[in-house]
Each structure stands twice: as C-alpha cells, then as structure tokens.
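Kindly inspect this one:
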Amino acid sequence: MNNDLDTLLKLLMAVGSLVFFCGGIWASRDWFLILLRKGSATGRVIDTRFIRKQGSDSDGEAYVLVSFETPDQRMLRFEQAAPSGFFTVHSAQTVQSLKGRIVEVYYDQKKPKRASITPIRDCFWGILISLLGLLIFLAITVAWGEINF
C-alpha cells in the first residue's frame, strides 16, 4: 500500500512538473516566435499609463504604448509593461518620462502585432518556470528508477 502511494505521488509530481515545463514554454511563446521570425524597427513611446496600487504613491503597474512602422509602411501600436531595471519601482512621474522615447521594437514578421521592446525580460519568467519543471521532472524520473513495479 505504501509503495502504491509513493508511485502515485511521484506520478502526480511528474505530471505537475510537465505542466510547469509546458506552461513556461507557453508563457515564452511570443519571444520564441519573435526570435524565429526576426523583425526589428525603430519605434516611439507615444503614451504611458500608470495604475496606482491602493494606498501607495509610487508602487503600481506601469505600461507604455509603442508605435512603429513595418517595412511595408504599416503603422502598428502595442502596449506592454514599462521597461525597467532590477531595482526600478515606477511611479507615475518616471513612467511619464518615457513618453516620446525612441525604442528598438522586435516583432514577429508574420504577425507584427506580436512585438516587444523588452524581449529578454518577456521570456525570463517563462524560461525559468520551464527549467524548474524540467529539473523536477528529471529528479522524479531518477527517483522513479528506484521503484520496483
């Protein structure tokens, strides 16, 4: 009975780790497609938006609206989280200062609305989650070899 429970728990952990792995890949899909179908253009931050968290003057969610032109003369816009460093906390004023800034836009040439000005940051958490899922899966499969069916 105890061996059956161990097998069930390891099976559940293996399936869970594969869900983590696939979820991370799904979260990074836009970055992968941008990387595969390389397109780049110069864009401009045309507007900003700051959503203040309740009870805070400086903490909140910051977004930028970016406009860029594709080689076939189409003007496109997209919104994304405002670019920041590791220790940057945006305020309404710092986000507003990004308005008018010239930025490099990376986009999917087959679907130009899939675009980003921070592709590395966009993929970081997805890849981290995928690696975590893969490591857990590998640990479970190594432990699985110790189970006698």
Q: What stands out?
A: The first helix runs from residue 2 to 27. The mean pLDDT is 83. The first strand starts at residue 38 and ends at 52.
